[in-house]
Every structure is written in C-alpha cells, then in structure tokens.
Amino acid sequence: MRLPPLVYLLGLVSFLMDVASEMVYPLLPLFLTGLGAGVSTLGLVEGVAEATASLFKVVGGRISDRLGRRKPLLLLGYGLPALLRPLLALAQSPLHVLLYRFLDRTGKGLRTAPRDALLAEGVPQGALGRAYGLHRGLDTLGATLGPLLAYLLLPHVGVRGVFWASAVPAGLAFLALFLVREPASRPPSSHLPPLRLRAMPPAYRRFLLLSGLFALALSSNAFLLLRLKDLGLSQEAVALAYTAYNLLYALLSYPLGSLADRLGLRRVVALGFFVYALVYLGFAWAESAPWGVASLLLYALYSAAFEGSSRAYLATLVPAEAKASAIGLYHTVVGVLLLPASLLFGLLWQAFGAEVAFGVGAGLALLALFLFLLDGKAKGAYPG
C-alpha cells in the first residue's frame, strides 16, 4: 500500500522547520549559561517552553475541528516561528530567551494537532504506523541536518550568527506549506460539543492517564546535552553527538513504524517505554563521555519506537468528529506536565546530582511500562 503524497509534503515542511529549530536547540543550554543562567533557570525556560507548546495544542486542535479545516492552523503555526529568529539572535538576557521559546512553542502548539489529524484522515488505518514513522523520519532528518549546520557554521559566525542563519530554512518551511493540498473539508461546526473526558472512549482515557504519568519521567533534551558537557565533551562535540542522535532517529523511524503496523502499535509503544528507562539509567551511571554518547544513541531508538507509534496508536483511539481536539488534549496534558517534570529534574540535579535526577526518571518510566502492560485490553487499537 503506497502512502499518499500528503505524507511526503507534510514531511518536507517538518523537515525544513526542524532544520531551523535544531540549528538553535543544541546551542541554547550553553548560550543560556553564558548569559548567567543556572541549571534551575534552564529547567524553567525549557519547562515553560514545552508547557506552552502543549497548552496551545488543544487550542489548535479545537479551532481546527470547529473550522472543519487543518491548513489555516498549519499556516499560522509554521509562520509564527519563522518570524521570531531575530528575537533570539539579539537576546541579551535569559528573559529574552524565555520570551523567544514561549512564542516559538506557541506556533508549534497551534500546528501539531491539526497536522497529526490531517495525517490520520489522509491515510488508511493499516498504514498509520508507516505514515507517522515516515513523517517522524523526515522531521528528524531535518533535526539531523540542523545541528550539523550549526557545527559547521559555529566557528565562522558564532552562536548569534547561527541563530540568524536559522531564519532561512524556517522561511522555506512556511513557503513549502503552500504545496500541501488538504482533502475535502468537513463543514464548519459552530456547535461543536464541549470537549469532555467522560465522552471519550475508555481506551483513550486510560492511555491519557498513563501518558501523564510517563510525562513526569520526561525532561528536556537540554539536560541530556548538558550531561554530555559534564562528561567532558566540548560545545562542538555536543552539537555533533546530537546530530548523530537525530540521524539514527531518522533512519529508524520508518522501519519501526512499519514494524508497528505488522506487530501491533501497543508492542512498539511498550518497547519505547522500556528503552527510555534504559537510556536514563545509562545517563545516571555514565562515568565517561563515550558512555554518555552511547546512552544518547540508545535514546534515538526510544524516540524512533515511541514518537511515531504513540501518535499512530492515539489516532486509533479518538472519535472522528473531534479527532484534532482529542489529539490536542493528549498533547496538552502531556506537555503541561513537562513543566513540573523539567523543574523537578533541574532541582534534583542541583540538589543531589545528575545520577539521582536520571535515576528518578528511569523509575517513573518503568512504572509507566508496568501499568501499560497491565492495561492490555484497551480497545480501538491494532491487535497486539
């Protein structure tokens, strides 16, 4: 079964935007500390950024369902971040970086649920794993190229020059979006029922609750990069290691998505929980830079197994009439919890060290895996 052109076009848009975003992201932790921020401030900035993105995901999904269209929210969600690069390039304090991250993640929040709903509506259910896997792969391929470009440009233009240069792929992503043709729209709904959990399928509610627990185990990837720096890697080597992580993630996404279509989405989601716990244990016990890099590369397996398959699995649990709203609610709940998760992680690191912070994250991931396996009778998903 061939995937429709829509999947490739949305993948192209995400590829270009991730080139722009990931040129910036690996440099932010060190840029922030250079502006006088501590580890706890880094946790605050990243927590606020991710929580903001997630809060706006349900907003974007709700507006999209009400309009009966997905593309207007995509144009807004990709266009806003494309205009914000100067704010970061001219930043003089951690507060400026926080403002940039807030506005940038607002755009991400508005576009995520409509984009995921558009993918789910344009692909047969039996190919959802491949579709989401391919999209995540193209998205992450951009995330691979971004840090590599940052690594190559950094010695010549400096950190702020890299931030300016990231405006080019961001603008191209917005322009590429005009190539996307949305399938026949549903009529606008001015009387969309209120979004209530009790009206959602039980399998969706259980997965939402379990995902909330797992979100408490998550911390910003910025902490992983900071851990590599603590283990002895230079700023350029950290950017290069992050490039390798994204490349492996991109290469594994489609094969693991295809595997999920054959073996069952639940099995691959469970694999993601397990590998995440192993990764955090690896970072907790790491005593050298190679050990840290190995843990980061294992993290790519988690990302490839979980990110696409969990989105595809979620798409099988939500009602068609409120698909974007339900997907947005899921992302919002998970993302809002990233704020306390990142704050807690930063405080644990600062008070007790990286070993304790990563160990707590691994323990919460194993608890989430246990509960997910216990709930093996969820309906509405692929067998297995």
Automatic annotation (TrEMBL):
Pfam families, per database record: MFS_1 (PF07690)
Stored PROSITE patterns: MFS (PS50850), SUGAR_TRANSPORT_1 (PS00216)
Record-annotated Major facilitator superfamily (MFS) profile domain positions: 6-380
Location (main, coarse): membrane
Transmembrane segments: 30-52, 73-91, 161-180, 207-226, 238-256, 268-286, 292-314, 326-350, 356-374
Topology term for the membrane: Multi-pass membrane protein
Keywords: Membrane, Transmembrane, Transmembrane helix
Subcellular location(s) per record: Membrane
Domain of life: Bacteria
PANTHER family (alphabetical): C-METHYLTRANSFERASE, MAJOR FACILITATOR SUPERFAMILY TRANSPORTER
Name of the protein in question: MFS transporter
